[in-house]
Amino acid sequence: EVQLVESGGGLVQPGGSLRLSCAASGFTFSDHYMDWVRQAPGKGLEWVGRIRNKANSHTTEYAASVKGRFTISRDDSKKSLYLQVNSLKIEDTAVYYCVRSSDGKFDTFYVWGQGTMVTVSS
Amino acid sequence: DIQLTQSPSFLSASIGDRVTITCRASQDISSYLSWYQQKPGKAPELLIYAASTLQSGVPARFSGSGSGTEFTLTISSLQPEDFATYYCQHLKSYPLTFGGGTKVEIK
To answer: What is the pLDDT of residue A103?
Structure first.
């Protein structure tokens, strides 16, 4: 069974940092692009960023709202995805989802984790 | 950036109704469009990708159509488990934006 399990969320003060993790199982992690998507309370979905697979040199893309503050990385040997979030703002408060996306064929968001909540508040 | 506009943002329907949701892109995105369903407190789930390809395991009452700038998600006969919020998403270029969502509620 394909599974994505996020962890690392919590309450943090404005300007603080967190590292979110996503543990993958049930598929060949190294073959897939991986994405992060967030959802503020009561709001819609916002794409955060992407890291490509090893075949595409693990290159990254980011939404303008997080570029320079957030960093996506992965460890294929551990089947894990990470999101380092720095300089947090109130508006970064959201559930953060880890997503399995493209395997080089069709690009879409195939499988989503259950999410981890990040609350930025003083 | 490519903007996606979903309509309606809210709809009220009865069991057995045919429901259509529209997603309009601000520029041509070919068929690089996906649809997701999200139930309260749960993560979104993929319904359709490449505008019209049904994801494995998704009931055949769901269908997608369109290309270019106008797309539709149709539920042929609404079932109790279909009451949820639906989102479109483009994957044409970065950033990969989502539509604002359509909440489908029971009439």
So the answer is: 81
